[in-house]
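Hi all, long-time lurker, first post. I run a small reading group and we've been trying to get comfortable going from sequence to structure in the token notation. Rather than ask abstract questions, I figured I'd post a concrete chain and ask someone more experienced to write out its structure so we can walk through it together at our next meeting. Sequence below, copied exactly:
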Amino acid sequence: MNLKSIYQEVILDHNRKPRNYGTLDNANHHAVGHNPLCGDRIDLALHVEGEHIDHIAFHGESCAICKASASMMTATVKGKSRSEAETLITEFREMVVGNLDLSGPHHLGRLAVFAGVRDLPTRVKCAILPWHTLQAALNSNAIVSTETAEDSIHAANSKA
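-- Answer (accepted) --
Happy to help. Here is the structure in token form:
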């Protein structure tokens, strides 16, 4: 089985049966992420106790890549510390724009299946949106968009 078919299977599985999909009643961190170019919208809620993400849930309307990314992200960061989540956010973002060498050290584990997104430039923002939203929620920013200056910089660097 090649990497492309594994990627497709993972996306389809997490799109059909997203993990941590729904609302979270006791959330103490929340953010809404939006990709105005394609219409993806993710509503992310977290319950952070001390420095650890105890509970996390998401819902919204999005494409299969965005929903699968959100599903795998929530499953991965649940139980992690803020600093571990921040590391994963950075590494995931760098991976999908082609700036992370997966043969070197990283913490992505199964998330590395999204590495192929870098070859689909129109889908990169779909995969990154949940991660931007997580970072916004952790930093108490209520709304985030994929259309930021930082994304433009990442996109320019990955094309250079």
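A couple of things your group might point at:
DSSP finds five helices and four strands in the chain.
The beta strands are 29-35, 40-49, 52-61, 143-145.
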